[in-house]
Amino acid sequence: MSETVNDTAKASLGPLDIGRVMAALPHRYPLLLVDRVEDLILDTSITAIKAVSMNEQFFQGHFPGRPIMPGVLIVEAMAQAAGILAVESLGLAGSGKLVYFMAIDGAKFRKPVEPGVLLKLEVTFVQKRSSVCKFAGRALVDGQLVAEANFTAMIADPPKA
């Protein structure tokens, strides 16, 4: 019996370095929250990394003496990973299109994220259309879930100057 190639197999990209991340996202320091992509399966999922350093600006005030990454920035990091997934899957790299948050649902924060860890971002498509996409995201440290959220984003042209 001969084996057949599965035509529905998804193309896998990765790892992607910071240059490729920056080509997909318009974010820059201090708000670029994805350092690298470990794996990206087009139209399906992405696994990315944020190296959480004590040098992050937000640790100056959140909180002095007990630095914890703000939950909203953990969700933003998941959303940026989703933006890379959407841009790569929809073939929009270099198009100038932006990925805008539309909704965040069911955000839960399980454990604090402290400096010196690698924050693993796992995001999957829940629904993919040409201009609106839904995602499910998880953030982990050392294999332990620290945060999760579902979110919706819109792909659109940047605002006119």
Textual characterization of the structure:
The chain is α+β, with helices and mostly antiparallel strands. Helices cover 16% and strands 39% of the residues. It has 2 helices and 7 strands. Strands 1-2-3-5-6-7-4 form a 7-stranded antiparallel beta sheet, covered by helices on one side. The termini are far apart.
List descriptors.
single chain, 161 residues, alpha+beta, 7-stranded antiparallel β-sheet, 7 strands, 16% helix, 39% strand
Quick recap of the structure?
With 161 residues, this protein is of the alpha+beta class. It is 16% helix and 39% strand. A hairpin with a 3-residue loop joins β2 (36-41) and β3 (45-52).
User: How many β-strands, per DSSP?
Assistant: 7
Looking at how many chains there are and whether they match, the oligomeric state comes to: single chain
What's the N-to-C terminus distance? 61 Å
What low-confidence regions span 5 or more consecutive residues with pLDDT below 50? Answer: 1-8
Q: How much beta, percentage-wise?
A: 35-45%
What Rg do the Cα atoms give? 16 Å
Share of residues in helices: 10-25%
- Please state the overall shape, judged from the principal axes of the Cα atoms: globular
Give the helix tally: 2
- The helix/strand class is alpha+beta
Largest beta sheet: strand ordering: 1-2-3-5-6-7-4
Largest sheet: 7 strands, antiparallel
**Average pLDDT value?**
92
User: What is the H-and-E element order?
Assistant: EHEEHEEEE
